[in-house]
Amino acid sequence: MIFSLLVLLILIRISLSGAVLDANYYQKTCPQVEDIIYTTVRNATTHDVKVSARILRMFFHDCFIRGCDASVLLDSTPNNKAEKDGHINFSLAAFESGGPSWSVLKGRKDGRISRAEETKSLPLSHDNTSQLIHSFSQKGLSVKDLVTLSGGHTLGRSRCTEFAYRLRNFSSAHDTDPTLDPEFAAELKEVCPIDNKDPNAGANLDKSGLGFDNDYYKRIVRGRGLLVSDQTLLGDHRTRWRVEALARYQRLFFRDFGPAMVRLGNVGVDESGEVRLDCRVVN
């Protein structure tokens, strides 16, 4: 099956004229909208294979703040620092990766508010399970959603700055994070040396990197979760059983990922907004 990341652009890039969500929202006014976006995104990936991972991350970051209202696309102004310029969003950018597909509900308006300070509500790479559960619950998302959506880390990579602290001087008792597989830690130390001067140095979030599969969970079970927010899911009884289940059954992951994405897309749907003429500025 084709992992339909392209449909995320329907939520992010197209200005909408209603607040009632419907998978067939454009059936009469623009029935070919998904085909058009599919072709556009597919062509983009012929030039950059990382497009799918970037779209997925942008979708999450947009929806987690004020809902999926494309506020993450707005530029900063002299009087306002926008979401895209929040520190956690510096690496955001906008195919066939394999994986599940699902119907995307359409009908959102574009937001008029975008504030960098609100990016502080996004889950962080060093958050523990309790912090992650709290962040997701604030958006009406369950523990199951947390573990399932974390599987989006099957795509993409992370820079050394997000995980290097796990490799050296981790605590007074452990030089290296004890939850890290020692062999994996040694590999990461080579990628991120003490005197690293490359700001782009980093590692894939899972071994496959650009393929959508359940390898992310398999690596967590083996102590190879790259980020603390990944590996912590194995150490908490509220999430461990599901990590282990998804590591064993890829079909289960594919079955649950689409519905979890729909729930994420439904966060904060609001009738206020506009049909934005330029995705980077309010009308």
TrEMBL record:
Binding positions for Ca(2+) 1? 62, 67, 69, 71, 83
Name the EC number(s): 1.11.1.7
Name the catalytic site residues.
Answer: 61 (proton acceptor)
Has UniProt tagged this entry with the keyword Transmembrane helix? no
Q: Where does substrate bind?
A: 123
Where does this protein have coiled-coil stretches? Answer: none
Gene Ontology MF terms in the entry:
heme binding; lactoperoxidase activity; metal ion binding
Q: Where does heme b bind?
A: 153
Q: What keyword terms does UniProt attach to this protein?
A: Calcium, Disulfide bond, Glycoprotein, Heme, Hydrogen peroxide, Iron, Metal-binding, Oxidoreductase, Peroxidase, Secreted, Signal
Secretion signal, residue range per the UniProt entry: 1-17
Question: Which major enzyme category is it?
Answer: oxidoreductase
How does the cofactor attach, per the note?
Binds 1 heme b (iron(II)-protoporphyrin IX) group per subunit.
Q: Report the protein's function.
A: Removal of H(2)O(2), oxidation of toxic reductants, biosynthesis and degradation of lignin, suberization, auxin catabolism, response to environmental stresses such as wounding, pathogen attack and oxidative stress. These functions might be dependent on each isozyme/isoform in each plant tissue.
> Of which family is this protein a member?
Belongs to the peroxidase family. Classical plant (class III) peroxidase subfamily. Belongs to the peroxidase family. Ascorbate peroxidase subfamily.
Q: Please identify the protein, giving its name as recorded.
A: Peroxidase
Protein's organism: Sesamum radiatum
